[in-house]
Design a protein that fits this description.
- By secondary structure, the protein is mainly alpha-helical.
- Helices cover about 70% and strands about 5% of the residues.
- Strand 1 and strand 2 form a beta hairpin.
Length: about 160
């Protein structure tokens, strides 16, 4: 029996559990739910696509024949920053959902922006939502944070070398 259907006045698309499942099933936000290998593959593909995207622009700024090191460093830095923005977007989406899952109250709108309501979760629903938040979503947030940390460490070397050369 779904507790949300019987006890909850919140519209289905605004219920925290529904938001969690819709994120988990979406094309982009499902990346952290994949296995470590598949997740790393997606991030690497995003990094390589960003490299291809910024190469023509950076070639016009740093000609590869005259400034090859500046070109390669700037390409790596720029594509890594763009990949970092992708990871930040993933993090923000999942952190919004975990905040709604962990909260004892749910803010919702019945028909528009002018009639917002607050619903206090019953203890059964609160326990279920917090369980999902702690054991399903927090590990995903940690995975994204670790990837962002690794990416920022990888960027630090080329940034210093960019200004040296």
């Amino acid at each position: 029996m779904n507790l949300y259907n019987t006890q909850c006045p919140v519209p289905k698309e605004q219920q925290p559990v529904h938001e969690y499942t819709s994120l988990k099933n979406s094309w982009f936000f499902c990346w952290p739910t994949l296995s470590r290998r598949s997740y790393n593959k997606k991030i690497t593909i995003a990094l390589l696509l960003n490299c291809l995207l910024v190469s023509p622009i950076l070639l016009s700024i740093f000609p590869i024949t005259k400034l090859p090191l500046k070109f390669f460093f700037s390409e790596f830095i720029t594509s890594s920053l763009m990949t970092g923005f992708i990871l930040i977007r993933l993090y923000l989406g999942w952190s919004y959902v975990v905040k709604r899952l962990m909260s004892a109250t749910v803010f919702y709108e019945e028909s528009g922006w002018y009639d917002g309501q607050i619903w206090v979760k019953p203890s059964e629903i609160l326990l279920k939502d917090r369980f999902i938040g702690l054991y399903e979503v927090f590990p995903l947030l940690n995975k994204i944070k670790n990837t962002l940390s690794f990416l920022s460490l990888m960027i630090s070397g080329p940034v210093l070398l960019f200004f040296y050369f």
